[in-house]
Amino acid sequence: MSGQRPTVVHTVEELRAAVAEVRRGGRSIGLVPTMGALHRGHASLVDAAVRDRHFTVVSIFVNPAQFGPQEDYSRYPRTLDADLALLSQCRADLVFAPSVETMYGAGHSTYVELAGAAEPLEGERRPGHFRGVATVVLKLFLQCLPDVAYFGQKDFQQSLVIRQFVRELDVPVQIQVCPIVRDLDGLALSSRNVYLSAEQRSAALVLSRSLAHARDLVAQGQTDIARLLTVLKPLYAAAPLVQLEYLTVRDRVALAPLQQIDRPAVLLVAARVGTTRLIDNELLDPPG
Ligand code: AMP
Asked: Does the model's pTM come out above 0.85?
């Protein structure tokens, strides 16, 4: 069932005026930060905010500060019309779609610098990425002043980084992390999946298959991580279109390496399929 198209605002002043009025009416605010090219994964975050009865704001902003110089900023899909159609179905209340100039005025020079959860894995492979993410998310929090902000487990390390700066900078926003939404064949939905050819897309299924296999092995009692990876890595060796960047099991608090699944853990994978970089993950808990 389709609802009304949400109102779209482009400036911080309009956003502030809209949320202030909602607050005066006594309603809470939920924020869903996105880069657009929306899919059912994003929709699940909007659904969660609507279900929690917040006035639901969705931001759509392709944030240049989180892309490296060799990354896909200029070709990142921008599909505002289709995004608004999807958001009317989800009954989002307001869309904030600022320009780059609105978010980063001339000479912008203030950034959130992070260590801790931002250092390993994506932090090593995408220098400056989390600095860009944390800066834009903090700006969105200050512009919108939400009670709750919704993020996807799909970007697991990002969710840790956001929780970290919210905790350490005393940002008064509650963070909700929602489960990964997948296509029927298992591929985690991502705005970047449109880059994949049919052949690459089917090769990319090795990511979700390896994660599902790991979950089964752990359920059967395999908690030795080296042994687990010895079973999983050959799946990638058998997928020549897929270049594995990392496949690693970490603890869920600080992403510290583990030898055994003896506490809440997460299996994280990053791989390239052609020029497209994909990430996925699966939570692994000690059996029983
Ligand atoms: P993005 O537009 O890629 O920056 O993503 C915006 C938000 O949607 C982030 O919190 C992502 O983690 C979340 N997200 C992206 N893909 C999925 C997915 N397949 N399932 C659940 N959440 C997702």
From this structure: yes
